[in-house]
Design brief:
146 residues; single chain; mainly alpha
């Protein structure tokens, strides 16, 4: 069986879904905490964390089994794609420890320190989740050889 015929070929779609759901949960978590709905905030953020962790497992599995997919767009869109991909990739590396620290501080009840770092973590996490979906669409849907 060729790699494109395996069940792994659906992982990019699954990854985009996981990123989308994570972004939605992060936004919901933000709205809940702004309204002092702490339990709902906690559920949303722990769920977003779980989906992001699952995304990471699926992402690594896909690239380990399928390799690299190259962007086929040409012209100005190529520069747009690589600008988005570069910022996404750098911030995806940065966001992992930020999320872990933010989560650890919340779970330890260090809410003053949690709030201080969450102000940075939330927008970066949201950016990484959303640009992950944008990269997926550009790579797998918009500029796929026919």
């Amino acid at each position: 069986m060729r790699p494109s015929e395996t069940s792994m070929n659906h992982l990019p779609e699954i990854n985009a879904l996981l990123n989308s759901l994570s972004a939605i949960l992060v936004v919901l978590g933000y709205f809940f905490i702004r309204r002092k709905r702490i339990s709902a905030h906690k559920v949303c953020m722990l769920s977003a964390f779980s989906l992001s962790a699952l995304f990471l497992v699926c992402y690594v599995t896909y690239h380990f089994t399928e390799g690299i997919k190259y962007f086929t767009g040409t012209g100005a869109i190529r520069a747009v794609y690589f600008t988005i991909l570069t910022s996404h990739t750098i911030l995806a590396v940065v966001i992992v420890p930020l999320v872990l620290i933010t989560l650890a501080r919340a779970l330890k009840g260090r809410f003053d320190r949690h709030r201080a770092i969450a102000r940075w973590t939330l927008p970066l996490w949201l950016y990484v989740s959303v640009t992950g979906v944008v990269v997926y669409f550009m790579l797998f849907r918009l500029y796929t050889p026919r």
